[in-house]
Amino acid sequence: MRLYRINIFYICNMIKRNTKAKQLILDSLKNTKSAVSQEILQKELGESVDRATIYRVLNSFCDDGIVHKILSDDGKFYFAFCVNCSEKIHKHNHFHFRCLQCGKIECLPNEVEVKLPKGYKSVNFNGFISGYCSTCS
């Protein structure tokens, strides 16, 4: 049931301005269980979507609360499909994990609460851990 509600949100969000390229990128992101870079998407989609379009769509999806952007310890940006996010509520206070062997980047399930000093307001959290995943360790 939970997935049904999530899919309704994304379908409604995509109705606003759907294109073939957006749908291909969205399908690819939904079908992967890890975060992907623009380069990974480009390899997967081949010549059906150009590099600039992928970049523009990924950033649009970030603004719409469909994906979140992760800055990895390798200096690249990766994008992960959001669960329970919207354009107004886009919260990702969780760590991300990159396997040094297989390269898979995952969102770890536990949210992290960071207590900031009085008067401070958090806008972005980018916690990152690298090591070996359960398959590679």
From TrEMBL:
Gene3D superfamilies: Winged helix-like DNA-binding domain superfamily/Winged helix DNA-binding domain. It comes from the Bacteria. SUPFAM superfamilies: Winged helix' DNA-binding domain. It holds the Pfam family FUR. InterPro entries: FUR, WH-like_DNA-bd_sf, WH_DNA-bd_sf. PANTHER family: HYDROGEN PEROXIDE SENSITIVE REPRESSOR (PTHR33202:SF22), ZINC UPTAKE REGULATION PROTEIN (PTHR33202). This is Fur family ferric uptake transcriptional regulator. It comes from Chryseobacterium daecheongense. The lineage of its organism: Bacteria, Pseudomonadati, Bacteroidota, Flavobacteriia, Flavobacteriales.
